[in-house]
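Archive transcription. Copying these from loose printouts into the bound notebook so they stop getting lost. Printout 1 of 2:
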Amino acid sequence: MIKRIVLSSFSSLSAFTLIELLVSLVLASILVLGSLTVAARTLVAYNREAQITQMNETARFALDYIGNRIRESGYWGCMKSLGVLQNKSGETYTTEISGESFPSDDEYKTDTLTLLGTDSKGTPARVTAGTTTQITVTDGSSFKLNDIVLIADCTSGDLAKITSITGGNVLNFSSSTPLSTTYGPAAFVYKVESRIFNIQDGANGRLALFETSTAFPNGIELVANIQHINILYGEDTDTDGVANFYRKADSVGNMDNVVSLRIEIVVASENDNMVSTRMTYTFNGHSVIASDNRLYKIYSTTISRRNKGS
């Protein structure tokens, strides 16, 4: 009786057929493929967001850096402006801010911005004694041969080039172009800074934002993956402190009347193959087709100049 029950139990069991196994494998494959597809799409979305975040940081740094330099330009200590200074430096200084718009055949399609002023964050050197060709300061360690400096006492101001330094704290100037007056303990000496911003080939072989300055005469790469820069100058034509027009550099009537600047940059992603089709974007009124499959995004800001405008 027991043997029959056992046999009966085994006889009631049935195995998977080949078709059932194949169907199970197909269903499992579909599930795995779906999971992999979701994971791949999630990874692509993550990489895209990571690249956009990096682009945002690149733009923020670039615009903040240029903005701070624009606000620092035109600082002449206690003197009002460049126009009230006596230029004995041998250099041609006509305006505190200037620019050059890119020509139509410029492969970089970049404007150039030039800023002039003294270092507003640095500490000027106090004058202890002087003549029209020599100034003694409390500390001359921040100055070097051929530096352009401003000597000013809030009544007079001279731009001059250092021809030699004696004893570490005596600044000498050319006797052929002597200072306009003798400066004493009421005066300070400031280092004059000239800065030029433009787009050049960067270290990674791609375009980047560069600064050429007194400190970096050969230029220094500030931030990579900046493709273009477009600069519009806000000119105040009715002296109410507000820009009436935003124009390209070569269309500005008087740079001294520029109260603000509108900066527009194009930032590219670090990684290529981020999009399946090359992006097309509008820059400076022109349609631009990207040369690769990176992401491209346009950023802009408006920056007011120091002691200019309302």
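Printout 2 of 2:
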Amino acid sequence: MATVVFLHGLNTYADGLVHFGPLTFGRMSDSWRREGLKRGWQFIDVAGMGFGAVEDQAEKAIAYLKKERLLNTPEPLHLLGHSMGGLVARVLAHRPELKGRIRSVITIGTPHLGADITEHAMQLEQTSPYLYRFMKTFGYDVAKKRTTLQNFSTVKLLELHERYGKLDDVRCVSFVGNVTYEQLCLPYQVIYSKLHSRGQEVLSDGFISCASQRWAEDGGDFAVDHMAEIGVYLNVSRKRRLFAQSEFNRLADAVAKVIARP
């Protein structure tokens, strides 16, 4: 039985839930936990990582694994990280406590080379006051998150990318979310239009460019936006929701094949 450690993405609420304005959609890990149960994985959802710098989150992940008595057992571990959680996985793979234990590092929608959205969010109050006020109305004040977001600037993430490279004895695979503007749900279309100039087409999952998501072995592209990568579908159209779900299922199959490799 494979032991899969799931590391969720950036959550500035520090609660591990999927937030969209005032709404919540369960835990970030829920869909991947269901996939793990179907496939017979021992699925470990690392809780309590907070929303600090990547290396701080890795430290909290180590503390969680220690509390769950997973540091001193012999079985190999597969680290599955979504978004910023993929960067935490890369840091963990270098930790001496886990030396020789990590079988694979799998990243999904991870900004290995930086995220334009972070830079934009830090300046949102000045560059898009209407959008800033709209988000604040729904309970998300970007200005109050600025200190946290600074940890995820492109400069900081490129430094991290250089510091925690691929390990020769660990299988490292990145999976890429790649959707067209038309395939994005309406909120992501608004974000995309703010990130990119009119007429500029950037391949991305709505948040992170495809170029930034690629690292080590390329596991392939999937037509899932940043939320659909964790099995959350915000499209109004039923047809598009079903398509996103089918792509998530295809992604889950591809991840399972990596984990099942001898």
